[in-house]
Amino acid sequence: MPYDNIIDHEYSIGALEEISKHQDPSIRVIYLTRNVLDRKLSNQRHKGQIHSKEVPAHCQVGDDECVQKHKQRSNNVTFPTGQELINFIEKLLANEEKVEKILARAGVKYLHVSYEKLFHAETAAEWIKIFRYLKQGPEANLTIDMVRDTFSMVSTSSGKHQEMILNYNEVKETLNGTRHFHLLH
After folding, report:
1. Which residues, listed in sequence order, are joined to residue 165 by a DSSP beta bridge?
2. Which domain holds residue 103?
3. Model pTM greater than 0.90?
4. What is the C-alpha to C-alpha distance for residues 146 and 116, in angstroms, rounded to an integer?
């Protein structure tokens, strides 16, 4: 994970430069990003929680009881609003751009993929993009159902911000008319 306080460290830069030197075989890097609001929701859901057998960090496919426990905990997250929220979003987006610049400056070839397109899309296009990049696995005739059949973990949130963010209307009002409004779903 390219944390802001680590990615720009001389050892990290050195490791990235070393990665870029490997050509035969080449090291293939996949840079996965996620909607910053969803990332904040996930972080706040897990912040301060000590996971146990009762409510583990993630749920196995078919464990409906675990999913329900997560959903009960997930529907009351309060977000900052106003300039605090805008600053938070811009900081995270700037960090994503910084990571891409650092990768490019180090000469690392990478594929940028989206968490939402991998796990919430109705097609397997993003997965196929990864397989093509890796030159491994299926590059055609792959369906999202085929992909999901391989998952061992299941989503534990509703996917709708309105159901998870306690102060959704205030968040929506903050983002309305900004270039960040599209992040809200």
Report:
1. 77
2. 4-183
3. no
4. 17
